[in-house]
Batch of 2 targets.
Target 1
Amino acid sequence: MNDVLPDEAERRLWLEGVVAAWFARYGYRHMRTPLLEHTALFRRAIGESTDIVEKEMYTFTDALNNESLTLRPEATASTVRAAIEHSLLYEGPRRLWYQGPMYRHERPQKGRYREFTQFGAEALGFDGPDVDAELIVMCAALWKELGLEGIRLELNTIGSAEERAAYRADLVRHLEANEARLDADAKRRLHTNPMRVLDSKNPIVQEVAASAPSMMRYLGEASRAHFDGLQRLLHASGIAFEINPRLVRGLDYYNLTVFEWISDRLGAQGTVCGGGRYDGLFAQLGGKPAPGVGFAAGVERLVALLGAPPPTGPSAYLVHQGAGTLEYAFALGEELRAAGFSVVLHAGGGSFKSQMKKADASGAALALIVGEDELKAAAVTVKPLREARPQQQVARAALAARLADFLKGS
Ligand code: HAM
């Protein structure tokens, strides 16, 4: 879990603003759920034999009422729980989005943290595949808006629960026939979660996976039509993708569409966004059956891909020296802030020279200097700090109106 220091925190804040505006353009409504949920929610939604539930959840017993609680490892389960609890689909389908910290007790490495931030969308009550395509197209638009290149899309379908059961039986037979070549992890998963063996990183297990039967052959007509429809819409939208028949995702609630956006610039933790359809989740959590589809993106990974941060210094740094100048500078700072400028007031005293050093280090575009001369003349000296232009005395009353021109460099 990391402290997020100002340089990074400001980039995140900026990204959050971009993300909120982008979701609004697609008609997604913002929603928030608690960081803590009953442990049973995640066990039921994400699946008992997933890595998350088996070994990554921060779970504890609330000593006051003996309830088992868990810090949320993701937000799809919470969103669906809330939708059921508040009858959110009563008046029809909903497009929702969220953002916030998630918690997984994973082995930390670059791009993988125990506290991390996701923003995500959940489209509830839509059968698709139109809305599946919409979610993917909107991700592509965001990468473009952020200037992120080289994020590729992998797509797969994992069919319906019944189709998957038939597939799973044949997959287990194939894996058993090749058991000698499986590693300990794959052997363990063979009987608990055999589909996860397909996305093993071990090259020998990968060979076994490559010769496994393909899910595509087990798809019924409706599943095939859903996948074809999605691909047609993606083609029509000019979205390039690769079908990865071994993409199964790490959570058990999925059916039909699954997808991941992957960057090759981030090393082992290159997946910046993942999602898919979860048509069984409402019923599984005790609600009226309703389809759902969504994604979540990892903020830390996206920020790592963003270019250099924009300059973050204030517009002006207020330097003051001499009797009565502090009061004058205080009032002037408030006046300029009310006019919309960011102004840092020098605090803590010190010589004129040391104050000018602080002004320079603050990254401010201008130093506003108030000495006893300025005080007498009801004026301020404006000194450009980033360009070789002469300083200039300006009447205090005219400063707010002229400051924008100074900042533009005229
Ligand atoms: P997920 O694939 O587990 O899906 O996580 C989504 C994204 O969160 C990942 O692609 C990655 O960028 C980021 N992420 C996950 N774990 C970490 C970590 N330990 N450190 C840093 N970043 C991480 C879900 O969470 C689903 N709820 C997505 C979804 C929404 N499916 C349908 N609706």
Target 2
Amino acid sequence: MQTHTTIASLRSTLDRARAGGARVGLVPTMGFLHAGHVSLLERAVADNDVAAATLFVNPLQFGAGEDLAAYPRDLPRDAALVAAAGVDHLFTPTVEEMYPTPVLTSVSVAGITERFEGASRPTHFAGVATVVAKLFAIAGPCRAYFGEKDFQQVAVVRRMAADLSLPVEVVACPTVREPDGLALSSRNVYLTAEERAAAPVLHRALSAGAAAVTAGERSASVVRDLMRDLIAAEPLAQLDYVDVVDAATLAPVEPLVGALRLLAAARFGKARLLDNLGVLAE
Ligand code: AMP
């Protein structure tokens, strides 16, 4: 595996690979990798001739008072995991390399960014869309792999790539979970033992919501209340939002019909955790 710290190095390497006929797979991450990230890396390796991972804790997507400084980092361990997955190129730029001058350009996606994560973190998705647009510009034509764990993020990135005609195919990959249902997240390290024991309530609530829909419940508010009550019964969980929406547009649906997504976010002590689940109302 080759490690690149400059934009010019990654760009010229991937340009050369494509010139030789290679298909390129790209996996953007903020590092502190876990099995969820590794599933994306392995998919990128399996589907493409050349795979590249990027590891960059992007300051633009953290709000004031969020965990930018505390965000967990372990570059040697991450590099070993990326290499073990069979990835050919690792891009680890500094903040100065990515943003040598104050950033005056911001990519903002309207509509789908306004609710859920966007409501709780008003500058977050502009930060994500800006860095991902930049990584796509650096990597060039490729397939890019994102986790469904951050469901709204995939929708934003997909829409941004389509609206800007970027030559990137966005591929969404399933959420990797702990045996008790907790979605893997770099932020799970913030959990105390008690909070870790409480955190699977998010997945339990979403599963109960999905089961209700499958059993025939067609009222969004009934499903929402059911999930909210389950999370409220866990004293260590501070609910941020829970909802059931159209899976393609993230818009409200009432009565429930078609491909739906159940979404939840809650704080457990220092950790703010997200989860989601798909269900079909036929
Ligand atoms: P992050 O480093 O948290 O920005 O995540 C990098 C990528 O890994 C994003 O596309 C995430 O959605 C994805 N990801 C994070 N957690 C998981 C998980 N548990 N399963 C699958 N993909 C994940």
